[in-house]
Amino acid sequence: MPDLQISVGAVRAAHDLRVVFSRLRRRLREVADRDGLTASQTSVLSRLATTGPASASDLAAAERVRPQSMAAILAALGEQGLVARAPDPTDGRRQLVSLTPGGWALVHGDRQAREEWLARALEERYTEAERRTIVEALALLDRLTAS
Prior knowledge:
By secondary structure, the chain is mainly alpha-helical. 69% of the residues lie in helices and 10% in strands. The chain has helices at residues 8-31, 39-51, 56-63, 67-79, 101-125, 128-146; strands at residues 83-88, 91-99. It has a two-stranded antiparallel ribbon. 14% of the residues are buried.
């Protein structure tokens, strides 16, 4: 396979994109009221909300942490009443972890707070034409995740 030359423009765009998304991700994390949760705990709650119940080992693999680390994360979330365990209906030897009503409320509240902050910022800082440009750019960036 031939060496692919990467243009200076592509390298610059990659750098700028990474920097901007890192800042945006940090700012969105600041907006959400985490109620003392760690980033790992928040990530597990979000994953469960997105993908549904999962075993501790599946969560560990998805989050790229050791099973022992996931056990500690789940224990802390369980103590706070945010997750619950139940037998896997297809394999009685396994347990599935799922969000409790309190876990769902926390995830929903955090997402709503982030989206409200973002909508307000877009409304206050950008014109309608600029917002359309942002939406068009996002459609192009979405192609990065499609591959």
